[in-house]
Amino acid sequence: MIDIKNIAKTFGDRQVLKGIDGCFEPGQTSLIIGGSGTGKSVLLKCMIGLVKPDAGEVIYDGRDFLSGDKDLQKEIRREMGVLFQGSALFDSKTVLDNVRFPLDMLTDQSEEEKLDRAQECLKRVGLENAGDRMPSEISGGMKKRVGIARAIVLNPKYLFCDEPNSGLDPLTSIKIDQLIKEITDEYKVTTVIITHDMNSMMEIGEKIMFLYEGNKLWEGNSDTLTHSNVDELNEFINANKLIREMER
Amino acid sequence: MLTRIGDYFIFLGTLFRNREKMGVYLRLIIDECMSIGVGSIFIVALVNTFIGAVTCVQTAYNLTNPFVPKNIIALIVRDSSILELAPTLSCIVLAGKVGSNIAGELGTMRISEQIDALEVMGINSSSYLILPKVVASVLMFPLLVIMAAFLSILGGYIAGTLAGVISPEEYVSGLRFEYKPFGVTFALIKTVVFAFLVSTISAYQGYNVKGGALEVGTASTSAVTNSCIAIVAADFVLTQVLLT
Ligand SMILES: Nc1ncnc2c1ncn2[C@@H]1O[C@H](COP(=O)(O)OP(=O)(O)OP(=O)(O)O)[C@@H](O)[C@H]1O
Ligand SMILES: [Mg+2]
């Protein structure tokens, strides 16, 4: 379980996060939704320690991440898998080496074990045949899937995905969502997903947090999403619906 | 400006803190040596051969006094090649080639979140990415400079004899005249310092990029200009300290 308390962050004179609380349960896919530029990625980066918040706490199963010492931080980080908004694959390494990388750096497994595990993860995301291609040679959707494979290769306890399905066709989006859901259920992972995708919200929104201008305005799940009396949220959902109808 | 220099020294500190296992670095260093060293042979060789040739012909042109023996030309080519042209000029060329490459690569990794990806794995990204480049530069620059000095003197020989300003015998006797071995040591000391400056300054510029592709370009440019300024400044200081 991850608990966040009163996370606040200001860049220059712009307050991006204004004190966000929340908790994320294991075995559940928790979604953070909100318009572009509302601070979703910044919140995620605060949680994983890439951005230092001005105030607040992030607690991983009772362990205080931000004020903990370097060794504790390292330990917690090794239990995390992160899929970045732009996949963040290492472009000097092949797909397979990208997936293997955490194993190479952080474990003492034998070559064979590492190769097996990396292949297994690639297979999981349906890319067992793309192992020796370079990231520049594969499509955006494939990159996201490789990013997921790399994020899960060490069996993380905490999985963070920043827009796993933005810019993908609806079918691939659904597949990626299902994949994340399966992994979450199977290994009781605490999964946090940032998304603006209405399908994802309805399908895998076991817990949904709505951010608006740096505040958490609403929290619920896919069943209660459409019955809220928060105007900003309804507007956000309607805009999403409109776009979906236009797509049809 | 002063805070930038302060930041640079703090940045240098992070390179050596919580490093990864030594075995990890070995392969990376070898890879970097290949790209930095082998990749730069051609341009360094070309520039220095021609610089040696030009130095020889120009010196001959300026030495109109018939009482000065011709072999002085070779001596001048030798000393200026070893002491100044090969180390300083090669490192300026390398600042353009290796420096912009380091800054561009790290800058791209920064804006595409690859550095963040390393950090969340609990890897010290600055030492993992930068230390191999610094070590490889400090190892390879001196080798390139030795080759550069040799080719510069050879270039002088070829140009001088082809242009007929000096005979092969005069050139060789000039090369042997009053040779001071410390010149080579001095050149290598300079080169090691330059290599460290070029690689760390370029890495600093690239690693701290904020923004997008435009800023990566700016970082590459400032990596080269700042490296060149650092090289000439260090050149002046080292010459004062070691040669006087
Ligand atoms: N390192 C930074 N320095 C300054 N401002 C930043 C930084 N990172 C983010 N911001 C600002 O914080 C705000 C929120 O950014 P964030 O990336 O969290 O948006 P987002 O909700 O993830 O949007 P999107 O859905 O488009 O990804 C933006 O206005 C952005 O300009
Ligand atoms: Mg974002």
From TrEMBL, chain A:
Molecular function GO labels: ATP binding; ATP hydrolysis activity
InterPro entries (alphabetical): AAA+_ATPase, ABC_transporter-like_ATP-bd, ABC_transporter-like_CS, P-loop_NTPase
Entry keywords, A to Z: ATP-binding, Nucleotide-binding, Transport
PROSITE patterns xrefs: ABC_TRANSPORTER_1, ABC_TRANSPORTER_2
Position of the signal peptide: none
Domain ABC transporter: 2-238
Protein name: Phospholipid/cholesterol/gamma-HCH transport system ATP-binding protein
TrEMBL record, chain B:
Keywords on record: Membrane, Transmembrane, Transmembrane helix
Pfam families cross-referenced by the UniProt entry: MlaE
InterPro entries from the UniProt entry: Permease_MalE (IPR030802)
Superkingdom of source: Bacteria
Transmembrane segments: 36-61, 134-160, 181-204, 224-243
UniProt GO MF annotations: phospholipid transporter activity
Keyword Cytoplasm attached: no
Name this polypeptide is given: Phospholipid/cholesterol/gamma-HCH transport system permease protein
Lineage, top ranks: Bacteria, Pseudomonadati, Bacteroidota, Cytophagia, Cytophagales
